[in-house]
Amino acid sequence: MNSIKVSKESGITMVTMSRGKVNAVNEAFVDELGAVFNDLASDADTKAVILTGDGKFFSFGFDIPELLNYPKNDFTRYLKKFSSMYTQMFLFQKPVIGAINGHATAGGCILALTCDFRIMVTGKAKIALNELNIGAAVFAGSVGMLKSAVGERNAEKVLLTGAMYTAEDAQRIGLVDSVTSEEKLMAEAKRIAEGFSQKNPDAFKTLKNLLRRPAADCFGRSEEDSILDFIEIWYSEPTQKVLKGVVINK
Q1: Angle, in degrees to the nearest 10, between helices 72-90 and 201-234
Q2: Is 233 exposed, middle or buried (0-12, 13-18, 19+ CB in 10 A)?
Q3: Which of 71, 139, 159, 172 is the most buried (most CB within 10 A)?
Q4: What are the tens digits of pLDDT across the range 217-232?
Q5: Torsion sign over Cα 143, 189, 3, 24
Q6: Chain segment 181-203, per-residue pLDDT in tens
Q7: Which residue, 55, 174, 30, is CA-closest to 125?
Q8: What is the full DSSP assignment across 41-88?
Q9: CA distance 52 to 55
């Protein structure tokens, strides 16, 4: 694997996104992360998962400069893969702790929203679904997961302002569940993961499915249309002009 690192210890599996300096999401990244979670679903040694990133970013989101080279057919394929992956992660049958080690923006925030518990570092790190600021849309799935986390009115504020939230501000609206220092992040994430790992796995799986399946079914009915809308806006002249100015420090 080139973009995802996996390590296991005492029933806790650490999944670390490790692609360049900002963990930008491209097609190979989506394929790898999806394959990891598919494998962990049937791994008897994995009782809980911690999802985190290398460096100062949890994930920047889409690798915009790379994806700008995609023709529409290829970009459509990529978006459908991304949608399938985050839906798979949202419904993953085991506990997933998001250890948000740094910035989690746009697609990176979507990955964080799939987690059952999100703990974020204080300081300069920001979390946002800020697609509006670059003239892009979002998916029905990201809206559905956001509403599940923060409620409808706060979801409107997050999406319609494109605001960047500190850990403390994100905690106030439910976008993250707890905050901690950079030094304590992994110890706290492991402590939380260990607590979840002690739960009856069948009961956890059933309860998580009862809680999340209705939301997934609901946004699933609108997902394809939202992807088509996303593509139309992505390839529009005003949005392309903004996207071509995005530089990623890889």
Answers
A1: 160
A2: middle
A3: 139
A4: 999 999 999 999 999 9
A5: positive
A6: 999 999 999 999 999 999 999 99
A7: 55
A8: HT-TT-SEEEEEESTTEEE-EE-HHHHTT--HHHHHHHHHHHHHHHHH
A9: 10
Q: What is the DSSP string of 168-192?
A: HHHHHHTSSSEEE-TTTHHHHHHHH
Asked whether the beta carbons of 135 and 242 are under 8 A apart, the reply is yes
CA atoms 162, 211, 53, 5: torsion sign:
negative
Alpha-carbon gap, residue 43 to 57, rounded angstroms: 28
Please give the Cα distance from 246 to 240 (Å, whole number). Answer: 10
Domain range 4-197, CATH class: alpha beta
| C-alpha 81 chain-centroid distance | 14
- Continuous segment of H or E residues that includes residue 89: helix 72-90
Rounded CA gap, 119 and 106, in Å? Answer: 17
Alpha carbon distances (Å) from 98 to 7, 108, 193: 15, 11, 10
Q: What is the dihedral of CA 235, 237, 239, 244, to 10 degrees?
A: 90
Dist. CA 47–CA 41, nearest whole Å: 10
Helix (H) / strand (E) element for 216: namely helix 201-234
Instruction: Please report, as a single letter, which amino acid is at residue 4.
Output: I
Is residue 35 classed as helix, strand or coil in its secondary structure? helix
pTM higher than 0.90: yes
